[in-house]
Amino acid sequence: MYDFKGCLLVENSGYSLFYVLINKLESSDRSEQDYVFSFFSNSIRSLSDKPGSRLKKTIISGLEAGDARFKGIVDNFFWSGEEWREPFTEALDSFEEQSLPYDPNYDEDIPF
User: Fold this and answer.
1) Which of 1, 11, 38, 80 is a plausible cystine mate for 84, CB 3.0–4.6 Å?
2) What is the pLDDT along the chain (112 residues), one digit of tens a residue?
């Protein structure tokens, strides 16, 4: 089911894909975040008219932590209009890339 004024809705759940993706970005599990970065970073802005406060907070936290993956998402907002660029301008201006912390549970390998 689609709501073209708001978000793409997951059928029969009332819960939107947009919020599922935000949950994954907020996760401390790097593989959950990587799922969004790998498959949805170019299209997350098409799932909502503008970034809500929760998405803004999540992305700004990632930028403040120096996570280049979050910078990549914001870089994709360049042509999306001021409402998608402006909330992240200050965090981008002070962005300094940091290495991701070591996570012994993270496995980048393809599972086959």
Assistant:
1) 80
2) 444 444 444 444 445 888 999 999 999 988 899 999 999 988 888 888 889 999 999 999 999 999 999 999 999 888 888 899 999 999 999 999 998 766 655 556 555 4
